[in-house]
């Protein structure tokens, strides 16, 4: 077994962890403020629970798993396009066709979705740790019921809100109700700390 005692991070390690922590906080603020993003040249809004259901219903491989094709990416960008995106659906389809096969295009889309699911408690992810395994049928009903009962919001208000905001509020509800038995999850920061710890252990 590894000996985890007596490990100290150097200055550069702490700086890297802090950068990740700041980024994680920024993502939460963007969700709370419902800020839009530029993703692969497309103007997109925050991912909502309603979007997740629509993508899941259409068996969009970006969310449900498998190998996405051109139609999955086009459907994704059309579903999430913001009011500031002036291109028509036809133009979006043409633009996706020109770039969807590049690694950076694919990676940025999956990162965007995973960031939205960052605060989803681990119990909602079924088989694994990626957003496409977070079956809405598993997490949606319980989380909406909890948030609605706590804040008095109606179903439409929650399902149309940024899903990252809903997950963050849900974590706060769990922390308030369970207390010290519930550890607030900062998944990105925790992963960064673990990575630095492994580096320190391995010399």
Name the helix and strand elements from N-terminus to C-terminus, one letter apiece: HEEHHHHHHHHH
Strand content: under 5%
Helix-and-strand structural type: mainly alpha
Query: What is the helix fraction of residues, given as a range?
Result: 55-70%
How many beta strands in the DSSP annotation? 2
Describe the structure.
α1 (11-32) runs antiparallel to α10, α4 crosses α5 (89-99) and α7 crosses α9 (163-178). The chain is built from ten helices and two strands; from the N terminus they run αββααααααααα. The protein has 203 residues and is mostly helical. The protein is 61% helix and 3% strand. The protein has a two-stranded antiparallel sheet with strand order 1-2.
